[in-house]
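Thread: quick sanity check before group meeting

JM: Hey all, I'm pulling together slides for Thursday and realized we never actually wrote out the predicted structure for the chain we discussed last week. Dropping the sequence here so it's in one place. If anyone has concerns about the input, flag it before I start.
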Amino acid sequence: MDSLIAAAARALAAGDALGALDRVALREDPPALALRGIAMAQLGEHPRARVLLQRAARAFGTREAVSRARCIVADAEVALAMREIQGSPRALLAAADTLHAHGDRANAAQGWLIAARRWLLLGRLDEAGRTVADIDTDGMPPTLAAVAALTRAELALRALHIGAAHAALDRAQHAARRAGVPALQAEVADMQALLERPAARQVAAGVATTLRLREVAAVLASGALVVDACRHRLVAASADGRGEATVDAAPDAVRGPSVALARRPVLFALLCMLAEVWPGDVDRQALIARVFRTRAGDETHRARLRVEIGRLRAVVRALARVDATARGFALRPLGDRSVVVLAPPIDGEQASLMALLSDGTPWSTSALAMALGASQRTVQRALAELEAEGRVRGIGQTRARRWLSPPLAGFTTILLLPAALPFA
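JM (edit): ok, ran it. Output follows.
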């Protein structure tokens, strides 16, 4: 490594991107291209940074496997910052394995953490958990240890393991202080603040109460029959007496019977209406008006309501009955259970979309569609509605268009972030 390359690398390590560019701006050899790409990424010029890093990786070729792998990892990190999460992480994981095999533990761990954070954005929490579990941060730079602890904390929060989240955040805070990076310390502080912000609303017998994440975990461990409108499921979680959610690694894995209704919106809307007025019943006309969105229902709507109620009975029969009453229908949980509705902290059908955009990072419609498991056209329609309401804004044109929303600092959207949906 010549003196200019070494000096540019030291400048980048110190956060002096302009100083690094002064030394390598006119050079076209692979190390200089890689350093220029990292400098451009630090300056926020992400598209240009990706071009430079990909050129450097091609120039290094297969004979310089370690340098090429480092370029691939750096390019993947820039892509993650741009929310370019399409495609397969196969090349990134192969690069991380190459670095680990050659003794570069720090950059290998960085590659695995990038893959884990990508899977978190896509709601693939099992893959993210397995990847993070294999990362050993002992002896690693404090910056890397802090990022690993933050990733573990987000996994724990998504699963409502509050105690594990606190422990991971304490480790992240300690590592961030040792690193002395203000941006990293601010990220840790923001995640710690999530624990104290409203996360959901509990609706029981028509009365709504704001809950924090710890209180949501307590509700899911209370033994009640919970209609979870944040995750679109019906849960009969077992009471464990510890105030900790009875869930496994992923938020869908509840210890106790549960029914996923994310792909059955009509049935879930009926279930929510019945649960909100438990132990009372709901008038047939009110069900028709809200679920079928019509003011004046006729016999065809009443017939369709009977069909949908029959389907709902079949889906929830292991947890509850849906009984007909003189005026409508009522939800009757099996066993000695109460019924609780966990509603999102924000209203609207686009709550999960707003949760993704609340990080303040520009997203493309294709990335949003991939994260939500929806079609791109569906996401475009939702964004158009939100833009008309002034809740999001678009920047750029055509395929370069990206979407932003102001950070939702008043409450946490951790429960609204997408989780991988079952195909059944």
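AS: nice. The CA atoms of residues 267 and 312 lie 6 Å apart. Residues 241-255 have pLDDT under 50 and may be disordered.
JM: adding both to the slides.
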